[in-house]
Sequence to fold (73 residues):
Amino acid sequence: MNNLAFSKKNYILLAIGMVIIIAGLILMSGSGSTEEAFNPDIFSVRRIKVAPAVCFAGFIFIIYGIMAKPTKK
Fold:
C-alpha cells in the first residue's frame, strides 16, 4: 500500500525548507523609497546579503528533501 514517492521524513524536510524560504522573504520585506523621500534602508545588509542567503539555503534544503532516500521498514 505504501507506494508513495516520498516518506514522512521527506515531507518534513520539504516543510522545513519552505519555512526557511518564507523567513528569507520576510527578511527582504520592508518599506521602499518613494519619489519624495529616499529610504537608505533598502540597501541594508539584511536585505542585500542575509535574506538572499537564507532563501538560497532554503532552496538547497528543499532539494535535499526531494533527493533524500525514503527509509524502508
In short: The mean pLDDT is 88. Residues 8-30+37-67 form one domain. The radius of gyration is 18 Å.
